């Protein structure tokens, strides 16, 4: 080999070593964002991406260490890894927020994804001396929290699920909402010859009942795909209903083949094995971090039954993060989420002195499962945040006392100045609900200079919890 050949050989070797070292320095985090519809997922992801793309060198994220230490070099959006999934509509969301009359981004309804590359200067350890910069690959997955409410179905057979539905239909507003569906079942010949058209009609009524519950803020909706079907709209696997006759002498082990009831049991089982399980296998098996958004304030606004159903929904959602030895999840795959954050969304709907109460309220709702989860190595945090702060805090004098007030614009563009009231730090007693209710406001998104990052509350603390350890 000539001298120049030897030199170029060493140069190539050096280049390869550098590439390998860079690859070693690169890290990858898969972050999932969920919450029941309306909880604020779309606003949250839009803001999160916007903070990372626009905040380099700005003071917008003081509690996000990599940003505070001016080590965040830049972020860019790159092609997402799974091309079968919808692309998260970041640009459309920003267009809506940047319009002359800003509006909230159109909510997502199924699964969507976005990938970012975050370039940063390592600040600690060997990496600091070896590399000028590293890249964190951040995949963000957005999926409906309603789908998590289906996990308990894996532990219930059709008869048990039906009994649950019947009990639910006897509670509060659900009695009248389920009336048309129950009336249509009066003539049902459960053991008669299966009639697909009839089942389709009944399933439509059942779904209407669930959709109306949802509209009234009753969040304990099962099966989740009946309100958010994603790609399954119109598929027979969504055409089943619970058994709600009074007949108790059904022999579930030997239903007449081809009967309505046999068809319903088949479809229920198909839903569990072809819809619920694959969702967990496809998405849950390789997530690293998870944020669950909870709209506690809207639930308080809607009253006692809505609040209690939200509590129950949280209990069920938490089952999806129960990694105990005997959990349903462990039996399906080895989950590896190590950090989980529950965040009360839209904290800008209340004055800052109420944020602690809002966090405590959510904490009390999450509390029962918390100890177990820490034991199982999942770090769990509870917080309150506003992905996009739409209100300003001011002061007013009321009966000689200084009072914090919020100002902003209502959804019709009207100027609002108000004291939204106190947030309870735990579930209010039944007598409280009988006497009064809550009325937390809604705001239009803020008008702002589109070249600046979106205003927020605690997005930086949330970023630090979820990504800080990957950006050292
Ligand atoms: P999704 O269904 O979970 O994706 O919920 P969205 O992100 O679409 O949020 C539903 C609605 O909640 C929005 O249209 C806004 O009215 C409101 N919202 C969401 N996030 C915020 C926030 O950070 N601040 C305020 N003031 N409102 C919010």
From TrEMBL:
SUPFAM superfamilies, alphabetized: P-loop containing nucleoside triphosphate hydrolases
UniProt cross-references to InterPro entries, sorted A to Z: P-loop_NTPase, YcjX-like
Domain of life according to the entry: Bacteria
Entry-linked PANTHER family: ATPASE, ATPASE-RELATED
Name of this chain's protein: YcjX family protein
Organism from which the protein derives: Bowmanella yangjiangensis
């Amino acid at each position: 080999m000539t001298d120049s050949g030897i030199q170029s050989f060493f140069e190539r070797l050096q280049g390869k070593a550098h590439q390998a070292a860079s690859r070693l320095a690169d890290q990858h985090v898969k972050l999932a964002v969920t919450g029941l519809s309306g909880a604020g997922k779309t606003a949250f992801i839009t803001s999160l991406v916007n903070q990372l793309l626009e905040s380099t060198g700005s003071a917008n994220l003081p509690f996000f260490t990599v940003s505070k230490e001016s080590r965040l070099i830049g972020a860019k959006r790159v092609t997402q890894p799974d091309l079968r999934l919808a692309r998260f509509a970041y640009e459309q969301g920003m267009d809506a927020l940047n319009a002359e009359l800003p509006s909230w981004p159109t909510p997502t309804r199924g699964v969507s994804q976005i990938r970012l590359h975050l370039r940063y200067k390592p600040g600690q350890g060997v990496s600091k001396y070896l590399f000028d910069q590293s890249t964190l690959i951040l995949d963000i997955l957005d999926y409906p929290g309603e789908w998590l409410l289906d996990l308990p179905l894996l532990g219930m057979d059709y008869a048990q699920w039906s009994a649950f539905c019947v009990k639910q239909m006897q509670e509060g507003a659900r009695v009248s909402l389920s009336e048309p569906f129950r009336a249509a079942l009066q003539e049902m010949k459960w053991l008669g010859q299966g009639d697909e058209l009839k089942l389709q009609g009944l399933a439509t009524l059942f779904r209407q009942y669930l959709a109306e519950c949802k509209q009234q803020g009753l969040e304990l909706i099962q099966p989740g795909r009946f309100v958010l079907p994603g790609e399954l709209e119109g598929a027979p696997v969504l055409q089943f209903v619970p058994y709600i006759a009074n007949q108790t002498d059904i022999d579930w082990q030997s239903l007449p083949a081809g009967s309505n009831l046999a068809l319903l049991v088949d479809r229920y089982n198909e839903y569990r094995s072809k819809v619920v399980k694959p969702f967990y296998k496809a998405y849950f098996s390789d997530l690293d971090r998870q944020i669950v958004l909870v709209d506690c304030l809207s639930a308080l606004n809607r009253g006692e039954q809505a609040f209690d159903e939200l509590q129950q929904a949280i209990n069920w959602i938490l089952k999806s993060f129960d990694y105990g030895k005997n959990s349903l999840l462990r039996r399906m795959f080895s989950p590896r989420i190590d950090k989980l954050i529950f965040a009360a969304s839209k904290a800008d709907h209340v004055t800052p002195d109420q944020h602690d109460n809002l966090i405590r309220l959510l904490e009390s709702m999450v509390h029962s499962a918390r100890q177990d989860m820490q034991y199982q190595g999942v770090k769990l945090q509870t917080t309150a945040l506003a992905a996009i702060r739409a209100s300003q805090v001011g002061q007013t004098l009321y009966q000689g006392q200084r009072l914090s007030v919020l100002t902003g614009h209502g959804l019709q563009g009207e100027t609002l100045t108000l004291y939204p009231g106190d947030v309870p730090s735990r579930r209010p007693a039944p007598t409280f609900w009988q006497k009064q209710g809550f009325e937390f406001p809604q705001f239009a998104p803020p008008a702002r200079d589109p070249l600046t990052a979106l205003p927020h509350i605690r997005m930086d603390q949330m970023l630090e919890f979820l990504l800080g350890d990957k950006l050292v």
